[in-house]
Write a structure and sequence with these properties.
The complex is a heterodimer. Chain A is globular. Chain A is built from 14 helices and 11 strands. Helix content of chain A is 37%, strand content 18%. Chain A starts with a strand and ends with a strand. In chain B, 0% of the residues lie in helices and 42% in strands. The chains are: A alpha/beta, B mainly beta.
Chain lengths: 383, 118
């Protein structure tokens, strides 16, 4: 089977944008086609990763809308919603469309428009993914993070400062990302002194509310060579789920969906954790980066908190994590985030990441929906 | 506040169309309302959605039903608690304002149990 290549990638500036979902999707989609020098009429399938444009903006039918706006009328269109993991799920869908032979050119655009809502309203839209027995108690995704962080710190005797080190590291990386929402260093003291959001987690333990979009263009490797030598390949991609009701897990600090999707993605790629040169993890909350490091096999259970303070996950460390700044500093427009993770890996693998550049031939992205409810892991490599 | 039990004695709260462990129907229920539970973990959430009290104290607690653990999540009556504390359920008619949130008010019930230190 021909491998599936990524021949184009783009992302808009993340942050507070005046543009609405239609404009954001079109901006990233157009830039992606330009990046690959591929004409609109070559695109056969169009996927849009988006969690809640209907709830946020009252705009539905976004994939058909995008195809029309980009001159792709006639292409098959589909919206992919897997909550915060919509982007990763879109990668899986786009990979399937090409790998199956159904499409020789598939455009994936992920996007979300959120900042026009108040923090409370946006939080409620996201919390609507929870089970009724959770929702009626006013549970939010940040409160799940607080519950889990307290348990993790208690269970493994980990210092609170270890989570601040994750945020500080990702903010440092975001300074060098021209698309990031926040391009400002934040000290560990500032993080530890910031207002409590979900005790023991504070404001800087959480990603912001963000507008933005990102895009990738997929085709068979044989087709990619007709356009460019600068492409990457999807060597592994897989998804998995965990319990919908978070308290039904034996141990909330173990992310079974991450572990299951990673196992399958590594097997498909013929790779293991030691082969990964750079990773983009779903640091919606600082504790999530730690839990993913363990579930992905980069650290032993109960030891993931050590990697940021020890410098392992720094840009010059053994495993650079979130060179883009992560969701924490780059921002988290729900449907775009998983696509933007792969955008960063694509740029890193092509040696095109500017001041953020690390030495990498194999990259891994882990995109998490809910509080680990659904996960997609993607492995990208140089050809 | 009922845990649901399948023929293979697996217990869950809430119930599901099929047992998450074995896929069998959950034909039996066990009331948790008059039992005590232990706090597994807790948090105080200060950034709450419309219609939710602020701050909102929340906990995951674990009941012991004939030697089997069953977990639940719920509001706490106080933040003066710690992991391992024993709590009892207290019924509340309305845990949040159903008309203020994004979810259709008629789509679910809004009463339930808070947990207070035993």
């Amino acid at each position: 089977m021909d491998r599936v290549a990524v021949i184009g990638a783009s992302m808009t500036r993340f942050g507070e944008r005046d543009d609405w979902i239609r404009d954001l999707l079109a901006e990233a989609g157009d830039a992606c086609l330009r990046d690959a020098s591929v004409p609109s009429e070559a695109v056969e399938h169009v996927y849009v990763s988006n969690m809640a444009s209907g709830e946020f903006e009252g705009q539905t039918g976004v994939s058909n809308m995008l195809a029309h706006d980009l001159g792709m009328v006639g292409a098959y269109t589909q919206r992919v919603d897997q909550t915060s993991a919509s982007g990763g799920a879109g990668i899986y869908a786009a990979w399937q469309s090409v790998a199956s032979g159904a499409s020789d050119m598939t455009l994936l655009v992920g996007g979300e428009k959120m900042t026009h809502r108040t923090t409370g309203e946006a939080t409620d839209v996201i919390a609507s993914l929870t089970h009724p027995v959770e929702y009626k108690h006013g549970v939010t995704l940040p409160s799940f993070a607080g519950l889990t962080a307290r348990l993790y710190l208690d269970e493994y005797d980990a210092p609170r400062e270890s989570l601040a080190a994750v945020a500080a590291k990702n903010h440092r990386n975001g300074v060098d990302n021209p698309h990031a929402q926040f391009r400002k260093e934040v000290s560990e003291d500032e993080i530890l002194d910031s207002p409590i959001v979900a005790d023991p987690l504070r404001l800087y333990d959480f990603c912001p509310i963000t507008d933005g979009s990102a895009a990738l263009l997929f085709c068979p490797e044989s087709v990619a060579r007709e356009y460019t030598d600068d492409y990457t390949v999807v060597s592994g991609v897989a998804g998995a789920s965990d319990t919908h009701v978070v308290h039904e897990r034996d141990d909330p600090t173990t992310m079974n969906g991450v572990a299951d999707s990673a196992t399958e993605a590594f097997e498909m790629a013929g790779r293991g954790p030691d082969d990964v040169d750079v990773a983009e993890l779903h640091d919606m909350f600082t504790i999530l980066e730690v839990l993913q490091l363990e579930a992905l096999g980069f650290a032993e259970t109960g030891e993931g908190w050590r990697l940021a303070p020890d410098g392992v996950t720094e840009r010059d460390g053994r495993l650079p994590v979130n060179t883009s700044g992560g969701l924490k500093s780059k921002g988290h427009p729900l449907g775009a985030s998983g696509v933007a993770q792969a955008y960063e890996l694509h740029r890193q693998l092509l040696g095109d990441a500017g001041d953020r550049q690390v030495d990498a031939e194999v990259g891994l992205a882990c995109n998490v929906g809910g509080f680990g409810n659904c996960v997609t892991t993607t492995i990208l490599e140089t050809p | 506040m009922n845990a649901h039990r399948c023929p293979n004695d697996h217990l869950t709260y809430p119930g599901h169309a099929r047992c998450p462990d074995c896929g069998e129907p959950q034909d039996d229920t066990v009331s948790l309302a008059d039992r005590t539970a232990e706090i597994v973990t807790w948090t105080t959430s200060t950034a709450t959605p419309p219609g939710v009290r602020q701050p909102n104290h929340l906990a995951i607690v674990e009941f012991d039903v004939d030697g089997q653990p069953v977990r639940a999540l719920g509001q706490l009556t106080t933040d003066d608690v710690d992991i391992g504390d024993t709590v009892t359920p207290v019924h509340v008619d309305e845990l949040r304002d159903p008309d203020a949130g994004i979810r259709e008010p008629e789509s679910q019930n809004w009463d339930g149990y808070r947990f207070e230190p035993a």
